[in-house]
Design a protein that fits this description.
95 residues, alpha+beta, Alpha-Beta Plaits, 37% strand, globular, disordered C terminus
Amino acid sequence: MTSGNIVRAEIYVSGRVQHVGFRWFTRNAAEKLGVNCNPINLRDGRVFVIAEGHRAAIELLIKDLWEGPTFASVENVYYTFMEPTGNMDDSSLQY
């Protein structure tokens, strides 16, 4: 990747991840790692996370997402890496 190893990740987390503090947990974990992120609850029960930062930090964030907060039960974390855009809002999604 270009941009000094700064990447964008689009991450989908499924399981019991809504109404358990998952978005707060994600923002907190990302902040500690120096990653910009925007977690969003999807209508289908998943949480979608847009994250930008150093690839190694995002990989650590993904590990944290597998754990989640205390009352979460993560079943799957699907992610893709791509070029960063600097836009942390994806208004094209249907929430």
